[in-house]
Amino acid sequence: MKIFSKENYIFSMMITFLLGIFVTLLMQKSQFFSALSNLVKQNMSIIAVLISPLIALWVGDMMRKRTEKHKEEIEVLKNLISYRHHKGSPEFLSALNRIELIFDKNEKIKQQVKELWRSYTNKENLLVSKQKEVELVYEICKYKGYDVSEFEIDNFFVSDGPPVGAPTINIIQNPTTQQNHNSTASVSSNNKTNSITSSSTTLNL
Fold first, then answer.
1. What is the reported pLDDT for 169?
2. Which of 55-62's residues contact partners 24+ apart within 8 Å by CB, and which partners?
3. DSSP conformation letters of the chain
4. Mean pLDDT of 136-161
5. Structural contact between residues 137 and 87, judged by C-beta atoms closer than 8 angstroms
6. Of 26 and 143, more confident
7. Which of 59, 83, 112, 118 could form a disulfide with 136 if both were Cys (CB 3.0 to 4.6 A apart)?
8. Whole-angstrom Cα distance, residue 99 to residue 112?
């Protein structure tokens, strides 16, 4: 059973370190405690050496959490922008459902999500819902420091057909059907040849 967590242990060690410094400063004012003051200073150096790795671990853990949160925020923003013309897609719905959890400290973004939800549930004009979506994406972009306007967010590219260079579909026919087709074509070709020959013969007569 854990009595102290890592954060509590680090906090207690830091308090001990600060108290030691305070006592050291008091002892320096008295010649009587000069020897003891030197001893405390030496101990403070040892304590500092012991605490430094713990502080480094704590700072590293905080940086890791911050990096992961930044990645999640960017992932939500990318899905909102990429799939905003496919509102029923799993990516778009997943991004909407994760906003209040990931941006839990930002009241403006959470308010935009609520307004967008109301526009969906009240079945307002599609233009109103679209504007709420743009405002939500714009608020997230502003929070992340991106220099974009609502006009730029409102415009996007949609494909009307297959992309340039898309692979073509080759249809493989049944060999029997293909053989019959070739035979028919051969007979048709022979008939055309005979017709031309007969026509030529008639003209020569």
1. 36
2. 55/10, 57/6, 58/6, 58/7, 58/10
3. --SS-HHHHHHHHHHHHHHHHHHHHHHTT-STTHHHHHHHHHHHHHHHHHHHHHHHHHHHHHHHHHHHHHHHHHHHHHHHHHTTT-TTSHHHHHHHHHHHHHTTT-HHHHHHHHHHHHHHHTT--HHHHHHHHHHHHHHHHHHHT----HHHHH-----SSSPTTPPPPPPPPPHHHHHHHHHHHHHHHHHHHHHHHHHHHHHH-
4. 80
5. no
6. 143
7. 112
8. 10
End-to-end CA distance of the chain, in Å?
117
What's residue 165's pLDDT?
A: 44
Across the chain, what does the average pLDDT equal?
Answer: 72
pLDDT in tens, 111-130: 999 998 888 888 667 788 88
Residues 6 or more apart whose CB falls under 8 angstroms from that of 12 comprise 4
Tokens at 26, concatenated: 């008091």
